[in-house]
Amino acid sequence: QVQLVESGGGLVQAGGSLRLSCAASGSIFSINAMYWYRQAPGKQRELVAVITSGGRTNYADSVKGRFTISRDNAKNTVYLQMNSLKPEDTAVYYCAADVSITITTTKAYWGQGTQVTVSS
Predict the structure, then answer these.
(1) Is the Cα torsion angle 88, 91, 94, 95 positive or negative in sign?
(2) What pLDDT digit, counting tens, does each position of 59-114 carry?
(3) Among the four 6, 25, 93, 99, which has the fewest Cβ within 10 Å?
């Protein structure tokens, strides 16, 4: 089994910063793409950022220039540095990863989510 555990959420004022972390553990052969999603109350879950195993990144238009996704492959960990936070960034943030548990088997795993609240 594979577990993803997020940390780093909390309450911050508008304009502030937070750094989310997500560590993967368990029966991991390799990790391919890693993702951050978010879901605000009453809204659908949306992709915030993605990073490939080679380090290529892509962002939702709403966070470009403010958020930075990165990863430490040695630690099986993905990060999301969030700067210039806005009230509309308030959501539960989830990490996800495409994990190869064997050389031929890849599955998607999700973390439990961490709350980010930005006050105005």
Answers:
(1) positive
(2) 999 999 999 999 999 999 999 999 999 999 999 999 999 999 999 999 999 999 99
(3) 25
